[in-house]
């Protein structure tokens, strides 16, 4: 296959919801772009599959809530039906440490979280710092640190050693806890929303096109992929930092 060079204004890397939303806005503004996705589908960490009963169900990220105004706006703009998640009732657990001790450790771990979220994501003193490195510097009891680590790694499915501190703060501090993060799911699956966003992009969406290198050039950037190169005025890396690196 002959390798080709594509010229455009903006090259977007990653067709998850960030990349798809960026493409949608650029499309509305009449700005030329290409959207590059390594996999053969859009949606990123959102995915749906057919189960054994012939039902299409979410198998990736699926929940959303009023604490996510941008995503809620996309859902409503595209006429998706929201289903309220049933979360009422009591959660019963039998912690090995006992109820009072577990409660003490929980509040101590949340104090670490509150202290972290008091830091500005753009604070130059945390540039390049991972969550693990920051946590090591804290003077909290070991069990509180362990509980904090378990909570964050469970939510992010990522070791703290690979998670940039600024990225966690930037995302975590948006959560108000006034509503459950599991408040809603999309009746037709979250994947259907990603497919809708991709539907009018035409050949500007390039699936199965992993980007290998990104280089600054005079007047722009040059991206190389398995199919050729892209010359753009600017590049938008629409991926989590731990994936992009």
What does this 3D model show about the protein?
The protein has helices at residues 17-29, 69-77, 99-117, 131-136, 142-156, 165-172, 190-198, 241-244, and strands spanning 4-13, 33-36, 48-50, 56-58, 63-64, 82-84, 184-186, 205-206, 211-217, 220-225, 228-237. The protein is built from eight helices and eleven strands. Helix 3 (99-117) crosses helix 5 (142-156). Strand 10 (220-225) and strand 11 form a beta hairpin. It has 245 residues and is an alpha/beta fold. The strands form three sheets. Strands 8-2-1-11-10-9 form a six-stranded mixed sheet, covered by helices on one side. It has a three-stranded antiparallel sheet with strand order 5-7-6, covered by helices on one side. A two-stranded antiparallel ribbon has the order 3-4. The chain has two domains: 5-61 and 187-243, 3-Layer(bba) Sandwich (FAD/NAD(P)-binding domain), CATH 3.50.50; 99-173, Guanine Nucleotide Dissociation Inhibitor, domain 1 (Orthogonal Bundle), CATH 1.10.405. Helix content is 34%, strand content 22%.
Number of strand elements: 11
Give the domain tally: 2
Sheet with most strands: strand arrangement = 8-2-1-11-10-9
| Distinct helical segment count | 8
What is the helix fraction of residues, given as a range?
A: 25-40%
User: What class, by secondary structure content?
Assistant: alpha/beta
Q: Tell me the Rg in angstroms.
A: 21 Å
Q: Specify the overall morphology.
A: globular
């Amino acid at each position: 296959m002959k390798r080709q060079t594509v010229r455009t204004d903006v090259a977007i890397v990653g067709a998850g919801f960030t990349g798809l939303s960026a493409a949608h806005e650029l499309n509305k503004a009449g700005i030329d772009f290409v959207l590059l996705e390594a996999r053969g589908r859009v949606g990123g960490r959102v995915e749906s599959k057919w189960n054994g009963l012939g039902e299409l169900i979410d198998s990736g990220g699926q929940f959303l809530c009023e604490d996510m105004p941008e995503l809620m706006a996309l859902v409503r703009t595209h006429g998706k039906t929201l289903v309220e998640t049933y979360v009422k009732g009591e959660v019963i657990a039998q912690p090995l440490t006992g109820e009072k001790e577990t409660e003490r450790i929980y509040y101590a771990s949340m104090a670490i979280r509150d202290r972290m979220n008091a830091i500005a994501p753009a604070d130059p003193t945390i540039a390049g710092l991972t969550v693990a490195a920051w946590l090591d510097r804290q003077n909290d009891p070991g069990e509180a640190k362990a509980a904090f680590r378990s909570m964050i790694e469970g939510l992010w499915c990522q070791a703290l050693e690979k998670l940039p501190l600024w990225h966690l703060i930037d995302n975590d501090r948006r959560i108000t806890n006034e509503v459950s993060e599991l408040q809603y799911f999309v009746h037709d699956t979250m994947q259907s929303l990603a497919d809708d966003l991709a539907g009018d992009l035409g050949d500007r969406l390039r699936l199965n096109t992993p980007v290998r290198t990104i280089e600054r050039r005079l007047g722009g950037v040059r991206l190389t992929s398995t199919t050729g190169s892209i010359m753009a005025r600017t590049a938008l890396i629409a991926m989590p930092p731990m994936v992009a690196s």
